[in-house]
Design brief:
The protein has helices at 23-35, 71-90, 101-119, 138-144, 162-165, 171-177, 189-203, 231-240, 245-254, 272-285, 307-327, 344-353, 368-375, 393-396, 408-420, 423-439, 442-455, 467-477, and strands at 3-9, 37-46, 55-59, 62-69, 127-131, 151-154, 183-186, 206-207, 213-215, 218-224, 258-263, 293-298, 335-338, 356-359, 384-388, 401-403. The chain is an alpha/beta fold. The longest helix is centred in the middle third of the chain and has 21 residues, at 307-327. The chain has two domains: 3-228 and 443-477, Rossmann fold (3-Layer(aba) Sandwich), CATH 3.40.50.2000; 231-439, 3-Layer(aba) Sandwich (Rossmann fold), CATH 3.40.50.2000. Helix 3 packs across helix 4 (138-144) and helix 10 runs parallel beside helix 11. Bound molecules: adenosine-5'-diphosphate-glucose. Adenosine-5'-diphosphate-glucose (ADQ) is lined by residues 21-24, 26-27, 156-157, 227, 263-265, 298, 300, 341-342, 347, 364-369, 372.
Length: 478
C-alpha cells in the first residue's frame, strides 16, 4: 500500500529544515518521512504552457511530484478563490472576502487539471490523502474519473458554522463535493460539528446509527484529528541551540531583559497588530517593566500579492514604529520586528530564551507555534504560554494562560501574570502541557488519521454529481 499525499504546494525536497514557514508543510514532511510515499501538487512556479506530467524528484523515501500552473490559474485558483474567499470565510472574516465567478471557475479548473494529472499514475492499492482548502473538490474529480481508492481529506484551518460558510456563493457545491471522500478530518470537534451540520442542512446528508454520514449513496466519516508536532525534535533543537551563532547573538543583545516572543506568518488571522498593541498596554500598565522586557515578533512575509496582506504589513510597521517611538529609549527598543524565516533549530533556540510565548490568533485551525514553544522550554525553568481561546490548540492546552485576543487589556494582564508566575507553578503547568503534546504528537496525528482512513468502508457504485465539471462550465459560461 502506497501513501499518496496531495497538497497545494509541494516544497522542494532540498529545503530541509529551512522549509518555507507553514505548518502544513512541516507536518506533512514529518509524516511522509516516517512511512515514505508520493507527494503531489503545485511547484509554486508559473509557466506559459505547463507540462501536465509532473517533474519527479526522489529524496529518501519520498517521491516529490510537482506541476506548474499558468499565471491565470495561479491568479484565479490560488490568489483569488482560495485566498480571498475560502481563507477569510473559514476564519469567520466574511467582510474580507472578494468573490468572483471567474476565480471560482479557475479554482475548479485547477482542481480538475491536478486530479487528471495524478489519476493517470495511481495504483489500485494507493491510499490518497488530500490536504486543505485549496483542494476541496479534488476527490469529486477523481471519483468521476473512476478512481475507487480510499480518499481522505484533512482540513488544516477552522470550519465555520453553516451560517458563515453558507455565505460563500459556491458553498453548497463545495459541500456536495465533500461526499466523494471516505474520511474528512478536522482539527477540533467544533470544526467537525460545524461541517456535519452544514452537510446535513445543505446537502440532505443523514447521520447513520454509527455516527457516519450517508451522502449521495456513499458513506463519509467526519472526525477530529488535532495535528501535533515532533516534540523530541524541538526539545533536541532547543537543547543544542546555544551553539548557534544567531541564537547566541540574540541572547547577548537581550542582556538581563525578559523576552516575550511571537512567531507567525504574516496573516490577519494571527492577530499580530492586536498583540503588539496589547504589549504596549502591558508596558503602560506596568511601568516597572519598561526597559526590562522586549517583544520579539518574527513574521516572514506571506501571500504578498493579496492586497489585504500588503495592507496588514503596513499596519504592523506603523504600530511597531509608533510604540517604539513613544516608549523606547537610547538603550531599549520595546518591540523588535523581524520579517524573515528561520530554520527550526534557530526558532527552537529563540523559543527557549523567551519567558513568555505569545500566541494570540483571532482564529486558528490549530497553531503549531504554541506547541513548538512549549516543547522547546527547559523543564527546570520553563517559560509560560499565553494562548488565544480561538486557536484550536486551546482545547488541548488548558495549562496555558488562555486569553481572548479581542480584549487587549486581558492579554496585557496575562503577559504580566506570565512574567510573575512562581517557578513551581511554571514547572507543573509545563509538565502537564508536554505530557499532552507527547501523547498526541505528529506521528499520532498521521497514524490515527491513516488508520481511520484504512478502516473507512466505501459503498460501491458512487452516484455523485460531477460537481467540478458542471460547476466549472456554469461559472465559465456566466
Ligand atoms: P499556519 O497558518 O501556517 O498553518 P501554524 O500552525 O502556526 O500556522 O504553523 C506555522 C509553522 O510555520 C510553524 O511550524 C512555525 O514554526 C513555522 N514558522 C512560522 N514563522 C516562522 C519563521 N519566521 N521562520 C520559520 N518558520 C516559521 C496552518 C493552519 C494552522 C495549523 C497548521 C497545521 O492555519 O492553524 O496549525 O496549518 O495544520
Amino acid at each position: 500500500m502506497r501513501l499518496v499525499v496531495v497538497s497545494n504546494r509541494v516544497p522542494s525536497p532540498r529545503a530541509g529544515e529551512k522549509a518555507a514557514a507553514g505548518g502544513l508543510a512541516v507536518a506533512l514532511r514529518d509524516a511522509l518521512r516516517e512511512r515514505g510515499g508520493l507527494w503531489f501538487g503545485w511547484s509554486g512556479g508559473v509557466s506559459e504552457t505547463p507540462e501536465r506530467t509532473p517533474r519527479t524528484i526522489v529524496h529518501g523515501q519520498i517521491a516529490y511530484e510537482q506541476v506548474d500552473l499558468t499565471a491565470i490559474d495561479r491568479q484565479e485558483y490560488y490568489l483569488g478563490f482560495a485566498n480571498r474567499v475560502l481563507w477569510p470565510s473559514m476564519h469567520y472574516r466574511l467582510g474580507l472576502t472578494e468573490f468572483s465567478r471567474d476565480d471560482f471557475a479557475g479554482y475548479l479548473r485547477v482542481n480538475r487539471m491536478l486530479a487528471e494529472s495524478l489519476a493517470q499514475r495511481l495504483r489500485s492499492d494507493d491510499i490518497i490523502w488530500i490536504h486543505d482548502y485549496h483542494l476541496l473538490p479534488f476527490a469529486s474529480v477523481l471519483r468521476e474519473l473512476g478512481v475507487k481508492n480510499r480518499i481522505g481529506y484533512f482540513h488544516h484551518i477552522p470550519w465555520p458554522p453553516i451560517e458563515v460558510f453558507g455565505a460563500i456563493p459556491a458553498g453548497r457545491h463545495l459541500l456536495e463535493a465533500m461526499g466523494a471522500y471516505d474520511l474528512v478530518g478536522l482539527q477540533t470537534a467544533t470544526d467537525a460539528g460545524n461541517l456535519v451540520r452544514g452537510l446535513i442542512e445543505t446537502t440532505g446528508a443523514a447521520m447513520d446509527r454509527r455516527g457516519r454520514l450517508r451522502m449521495a449513496g456513499r458513506t463519509v466519516r467526519v472526525d477530529a484529528f488535532p495535528i501535533g508536532i515532533d516534540v523530541d525534535d524541538f526539545r533536541r533543537f532547543a537543547d543544542r541551540a546555544s551553539g548557534l551563532r544567531l541564537v547566541r547573538q540574540m541572547a547577548q543583545s537581550l542582556g538581563d531583559r525578559r523576552l516575550v516572543i511571537g512567531v507567525d506568518r504574516l496573516d490577519y488571522s494571527k492577530g499580530i497588530v492586536e498583540r503588539i498593541e496589547a504589549f504596549e498596554r502591558f508596558l503602560v500598565a506596568n511601568p516597572q517593566q519598561r526597559g526590562r522586557s522586549i517583544l520579539l515578533q518574527i513574521t516572514p512575509e506571506s501571500r504578498a500579492e493579496v492586497p489585504e496582506y500588503a495592507e496588514l504589513g503596513q499596519r504592523i510597521d506603523q504600530a511597531v514604529g509608533r510604540i517604539n517611538g513613544a516608549h523606547g529609549g537610547l538603550d531599549w527598543t520595546p518591540v523588535r520586528f523581524v520579517k524573515r524565516a528561520f530554520s527550526r533549530p534557530v526558532l527552537a533556540g529563540l523559543y527557549r530564551h523567551a519567558a513568555v510565548g505569545l500566541v494570540t490568533p483571532m482564529r486558528d485551525g490549530m497553531n503549531l507555534v504554541a506547541k513548538e514553544y512549549v516543547a522547546a522550554q527547559d523543564p527546570a525553568d520553563p517559560g509560560v504560554l499565553v494562548l488565544s481561546r480561538f486557536a484550536g490548540a486551546a482545547r488541548q492546552m488548558p495549562d496555558a494562560l488562555i486569553v481572548n485576543p479581542f480584549d487587549k487589556s486581558e492579554v496585557a494582564e496575562a503577559i504580566q501574570t506570565a512574567l510573575c508566575l512562581p517557578l513551581e507553578e511554571r514547572r507543573e503547568r509545563h509538565a502537564r502541557l508536554v505530557a499532552g503534546l507527547e501523547a498526541r504528537d505528529v506521528s499520532w496525528w498521521a497514524g490515527s488519521y491513516l488508520a481511520a482512513l484504512s478502516r473507512a468502508r466505501r459503498r460501491a457504485k458512487p452516484k455523485l454529481r460531477t460537481v467540478a465539471r458542471s460547476e466549472a462550465d456554469r461559472f465559465a459560461a456566466a
